[in-house]
Amino acid sequence: MSVACCVPLVECVSCLACIRWVWKKFLYTAGRESENWGLATATEFEPIPRLCRYILSVYEDDLTNPIWAPPGGGLNLGKESDFLLLLDNKLGQTTYDGGYVHNGLLKAAQYVLQEECGILRELVERNPDYTLTFAGHSLGAGVVTLLTMLAVKNREKLGHIERKRIRCFAIAPARCISLNLAVRYADVINSVVLQVTFVLSRMIFYPDDRSTGRCLQITFLVKNADTCTLEEKMLQDPRRLYAPGRLYHIIVRKPFRCKRISPLVKTAVPVDGRFEHIVLSCNATSDHAIIWILQESERAFDSLLEKERIMGIPPAQRMERQASLVKEHMEEHRAAIERAVALDVPHAYSPSYGTFHEMEKGENSSAAQEAKGYA
Length: 375
Prior knowledge:
Blueprint (H helix, E strand, L loop, with lengths): L1 H26 L2 H4 L4 E2 L2 H4 L1 H11 L22 H8 L6 E3 L2 E3 L1 H24 L5 E6 L1 H15 L12 E6 L5 E2 H6 L4 E6 L16 H17 L3 H5 L5 E2 L3 E6 L12 E5 L15 H5 L1 H22 L3 H28 L13 H19 L1
Parallel strand pairs: 4-5, 5-7, 7-9
Antiparallel strand pairs: 1-10, 2-3, 6-8, 9-10
Keywords: Hydrolase
Pfam family, one: Lipase_3
GO biological process, one term: lipid catabolic process
């Protein structure tokens, strides 16, 4: 009799679990992760469409009529060696600078730095007023992320370049570094996400014609496991890999709407809420393609410029805003590190490269030069 009385209770618990699963998998949209983030400005977002064109130019003969896209919309990797590189990693296999990184991507970044170090050093010394910018898409975004970290830690190999002159833009990046590194390097590394487009570090690929479907099935199972994991436990696992640095989230769709909205760009250095609860949607493969990211980033940039034109901001105030933007980003970076420490994120501590006061002094002088050039 007592067993029979427990049956309704078990059914209620099961229903609640199913409702939570449906919420996390289908109704918890990308916009919820970034709903409390700040809006990006046209000044800080301006390089992204241009860098997307640079990346696309590697594949395209005619940028006015781009035709490149892997079968399935951009999620598939083109070569068997790409799969081997992505799969060359185990949970907690490789450490770097007090955190965990993707083993295969780190090897690729080390190879690139070794081969191109001389050319990069020559360019840096020849152009002392230029920044050294790394950019990549998808798997390449993970490589340039770790390449940027290597460059920051080995600046003597690049002509003793200042940290403030190094930056990285990872387009639809792979999850390649642990949370403490993602926050600490947010002053030099920027990730661009269209809706929710990244390559899971634990995703398993099959290099054949049906790879996209299998990728989605396995990713679905992987993310289901994350649904049953408490967020506090995920944050305190130092081996989990995340999207790197400061995030720029381009939102072009909202739930229960048939058409796209005017692009909205939000930015932050989040500690929790780095798209951990999002699963791949039916648009994930197309959103991951560099062509679509280029088009939507151009639309977003035009929208930001139009808003500034309507507001009629005077040139002097634009220069002041550009100078204050650097300080705001640095304060946000400091707050993210403090929040990581408060949440007991393993190995979360202030960077060893110097104090925030020293960084602020260098960044403000750089911002003043950029504002002068902009004027």
